[in-house]
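[audit] Reproducing an earlier prediction to check determinism. Same input, same settings, fresh worker. If the tokens differ from the archived copy the diff job will pick it up downstream; this log only records the rerun itself.
[audit] input (516 residues):
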Amino acid sequence: MANEPGNRTDYHELYKPVDGEDGTGDNYRNDMDHIDRRLIKFGDISERPSEAPDTAVFVEDETSSGDPGAQWRYDASTGEWVKQPINTDVVSAESLTTQSVDTERVFSNAVTMYVRTDGSDSNDGLSPSSAKATVNSAIRNAPINGDAGLPLVIDIEAGTFTDDENIVEVRDSSIPHLHLRGEVDGSNNPATVLDASGQTYGVVSEGPRRITVENCHITGAQVCAYARGGTFYKFVNSKLSDSSRFVAEITNTSSAVIDSNSLLDNTMRSDAAGNLTVVGCASCKVEGEVVGTGGGQDPVYGKQNSYIIIVDGGRVDGNGSANCIFVVDSTDCKMGLNTTYANASVACRAERGCTTKTPDFSTITLENVNRAFNVSRGSHVHDETSDSSAWGIPKQNGDPSLWDLGGPANGWLSFDLDIEKPKFYAANEGAWLEGGKKLIKDGSLTVPSGGEQLVTVATGATRPLEVNYGFANTPNAGVDIEYSVRYGGGDTRVFFKETSGAGGADVTFTIYEDIR
């Protein structure tokens, strides 16, 4: 057989010598003591050697005539290759929109390392009985051979785990797919606690990779989860809490999904800078719950061309903050699809060129929130259902620091230029106004030839009125309509009078009160 142990060429192909040893010698068994046992062989099942170092791994490639994708581990105590169970956990690569795209990747044939409370970092970590004590040791010693396509699963039992460094640190480009898989208690809450108290980060990733955090409670670090440089996080039934800076910081083209069973809660920290921050062309989709800090900081913050989506049952609780969400500097925020915003003055505040979108405002629930939107400084709100928008526009051309607040208190958005004029929201009136004028009455009436008709409006005697009127249809030649305003002692009356006697006229009118 071409791959028998006596064939030294195949021996070198399968297992790389360590520390400069060339692996040659008369006795194959003795030579194996010099072999790096973490390496893996890929190939057809016919290329699997009859013997190998203990715990060596052989993976059938996609063209194998046996079972493509199957993973085998060599057990030196029995002299046999043992087929490993396939990890079929699914990591969803949902797009950060309200629609899912067909880009699921199944973590089949993943290398699985085990971490236990009674483990030791001197163990190989390849089975529960030989588990590691820390997640970092499991990651650094995983037998992935630098293969960029091989996912890594870290199986972590229930209990509390600490480290003298960041609990999970991934900066190696050879680990593109990482799944931290904890356990749950009887109530399906995360029972695996990664306590990063005293550390800068709980989980930190720099570089393009996918990380799934499942059934884990990460707590105590300055930042519980940090992503930079294209990392994609997905939090599944997990909790992040008790951070002095941010519970999650997604930056520099990275992205994250917080699933419907996950919670970001920083209410225990009055000194925290915030909770979830998304900065630098980053994006985040929230389907779970984000709760503010103990010091009144806004729980969700976006900046610098980033994108935040709160959809599919997501909830943001300000815990007494000014805003549930605050976005600035061309950052977009999409809200809706059965989402809730609670315990803040404003659900979403946007400044400096931001867009806040609502797929359907009727699906947004406000609990102890004064108004849905506060947009200013060139930002706007857009309702996709009605295809209407509200803009924050400068009050004075000469003073760009003064801005009108755009966005409604009741969710009705303005303006649609196809059907109406631009309007401004007057917070003191709780109404949308056309250029500072408040419509108080409109309608139509018939003015007889040489006679008059009156319209009563409930305004004070000193309030200025603007009366606009015109003919509903073509009157007789020479018909002349005039109007006058008279105070009747308890109300104000507008009289329309035909003065020429050339015939009656049907008149339409609008009466505004100028409140500027």
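[audit] rerun output stored. Observation attached for the diff report: The chain has a mean pLDDT of 78.
[audit] end
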